[in-house]
Amino acid sequence: MNSEDEGRAKKIIQERMNPLNDYLFMKYMGEKGDEEQLISFLNAVLQKTGRAGIVSVEILEDKTHTAEFIGDKASILDVRAKMTDGTKVNIEVQVRNVSNMDRRSLFYWCREYSKGIGSGQQYEELPNVIAINILGQEFLPIDEVHASFHLWEDVRRDYRLTDALELHFIDMVKFQRLENKDIEHNMIHRWLTFFDCKTDDATINRILDMDKAIKKVQDIITVVRQDSEMYRAYQMRELALMDFNSSVSTAEKKGIAIGKQEGRQEGIAIGEQRGIAIGEQRGRQEGIAIGEQKGIAIGEQRGIAIGKQEGRQEERKEHVLRLSQNGFSAIEIAKFTNLPVEEIEEILKNN
User: Fold this and answer.
1) Are 319 and 240 in contact (CB under 8 A)?
2) In whole angstroms, what is the distance from residue 161 CA to residue 163 CA?
3) Domain spans in the chain, listed from the N-terminal domain onward
4) CA atoms of 208 and 202, how far apart (whole Å)
5) How many CB atoms lie within 10 A of CB 325?
6) Sheet holding 146-152: strands in order across?
7) What predicted TM-score, i.e. pTM, was given to this entire model?
């Protein structure tokens, strides 16, 4: 493991635990006994759409969080709950660099909505569903830190078709850039400031003194840090998410570089062939232009595919090394990653 990797692993241990690690978020917001802090957070979010004032909520637990599930960078750890009026809420923390968050959120909204009716029931029995997305990357091309969406008529913007659908997108990147954060009077600012790992200790202590729900969250985080099994799960999840973002970025850069180089060469060849058919003089000029455009596109696609494949291989190796650095044996790593023990031992031997 190189010095950069060792430094990243040490930071997970030394720095303040990341409240937006989705495993940790699930521990303090998505399990039985977390109702107080979940109600507080939902009221902070839903005051934007006039639905605040929640006094009770039922947390719908999903106990499928095995070591393999936590270590899988593609797995989803979301918080699900039901309010007293039957409205369901799904909260997803998404700090990974993923695309199509609009369609992704609609997909998970549909999944939750379709669960609300059984055979023989009427459509009016379908519950309203609210999807809340806390994002670690910029997604919407608007200035708002917190954006919410419903189904409005295209011309009559004051007419809403139904309140069955409600989507929220909370952008942590935009919030970090926000200059005037009002933690004294604005509940959502208070929560997001607590979620932000860059918040200084003095501000965190002020928030804990003024908000007992957030203080309870901090108490649970302390318990997780002190429990070796839960803390190891937190570390595994943090490493998996860090590796995901790193591998995506590396694969994209490699793919673009390879694609541009191959695309230019292939584009010139295609352009010349097509140009000769039209006419030597005119064909070379037009063919090279067309060929370069199509060739670059083809080359970029091929390059990205090659880059992603190389990135996945490198990612597997780095993931094994990080787990080994954190005290896992080859057999344990095999259970977490589904890789053969022989392959893991070979990686550890050569690094």
Assistant:
1) yes
2) 7
3) 3-226, 250-349
4) 10
5) 15
6) 57-60, 79-83, 88-94, 129-135, 160-171, 146-152
7) 0.67
